[in-house]
Amino acid sequence: MTIAPAAADATTDLVVTDPVDGTVASTVPRASEPEVRDAVARARAAAGPWARTAPAERGALLRAAAEHVRAHAQELADLNTRETGKVPGDALGGVEAGVGTLVQYAELGPVHRGEALRGQFGAADWAVPHPRGVVLALTPWNDPVAVACGILGAAIVTGNTVVHKGSERSPATIARLNALLAEVLPDGVLVGVDGDGSTGELLLAQDGIDVYAHVGSTATGDRLSEVAVATRAHVVRENGGNDAVVVDADVDPEWAAAQVALGAFANTGQICTSVERVYVHRDVAEPFVAALVAEAERRTAAPADTYGPLVDERLRSTVQSHVDDAVQRGATARTGGVTPDGVGTFYPATVLTGCTDEMLVMTEETFGPIAPVRVVDDFDEGLRLAAADRYGLAATVLTNDTGHALRAAAELPVGTVKVNAVFGGAPGGSAQPRGASGAGFGYGPHLLDELTTTTVVHLEPAPARTTGGTK
Description:
About 40% of the residues lie in helices and about 20% in strands. It is α/β, with parallel strands linked by helices. The chain folds into two domains: about 15-115 and about 130-240, Aldehyde Dehydrogenase, Chain A, domain 1 (3-Layer(aba) Sandwich), CATH 3.40.605; about 245-420, 3-Layer(aba) Sandwich (Aldehyde Dehydrogenase, Chain A, domain 2). A seven-stranded mixed sheet has the order 12-13-14-11-10-16-17, sandwiched between helices. A six-stranded mixed sheet has the order 7-6-5-8-9-19, sandwiched between helices. A three-stranded antiparallel sheet has the order 3-4-20. The longest helix is centred in the first third of the chain and has 21 residues, at about 90-110. It is globular. The model is unreliable at about 1-10 (pLDDT under 50).
């Protein structure tokens, strides 16, 4: 792995440009087909011994690996910033979050226990968890270390081995993370594979993979589910989202605007659970929009180390096409909405008003700093529109009405309902996305269950052997 090399082989190397200035940020060799086969074979060979390793020992090794990553946190953060444009503070925070997740799983794994079952008198029944085997982990670029550590930590501590391919948009960051973890773990427990979509297809063609664990696009998640029909691999996937916010009539509009701005513009809108749709009650719509525009303009004018670029030109073109579609259909860009001149892939924080249901900004995941606003007549209308979507990742309601909050929790078909905070949650929380957003528990303690199988044991005493004759 080299940073800013003099030359690269376009047929074999992954070359990433810095989204701030367009220079070469990293070059990483793409794995060949023999290297892909070898990676899966190494993980398969290590699976048996690792499964038989005591859970406490697995936990201790994972904790040591976490501390090794912590010692290189700034290095990983710098790689992340160069490759994706993630602002330095957020990049370092993502690495620290990843370390914390590894430590959490190091503690949870050894106490991930079976269950005693109540059966008949004189017999015993219990359920025992077992590793599934080899996990293929496919992870994204938008918070590469934090997201990857969740899947890797849960898989490894439960006795699985892992073949890990990160996104081709952050290959150097993931290659370094894989190397750091592998320096502590036994050989074959974690094997990194660098590559793009074609490399992913090569991995799917390999025998001996028991789980596909994926965080990323819905299209890739659908592809994994399609392949799993034939391979019978278990699939855990957290995919795209089109998360809604419903702003009720009884909240402070400036506070609500700050919440929505955080959800829509943090990491330049490049978060799976970013705010993608805004439904605001008519009674507070005017001051809310004014405050939201002010929040957007403040972020756009912020220094580059506070408000960063989009990851690449392809994503920026998609974001602009969604904005153009909305404007052509009658929406108004109250601020932003135009691709700026100059180097890099910056895009302004944008507020759209007059949005309607058929616009791409309301029906698709834009994954950029866009806050499309639709005014609703009452909370019922906002809740109904928020629920009417093919995605089912998360949603937020901002309200002082406890009854409205309880209705949202009961009626929104999403994995996470947040009340009065667009981000946040207890450590170890789990969520189960719905619809086009995926399936299975993607993090938290429940991920340990996803990555294990359960054997139910029933034990009865056998009658004593007789030797013949009578006593």
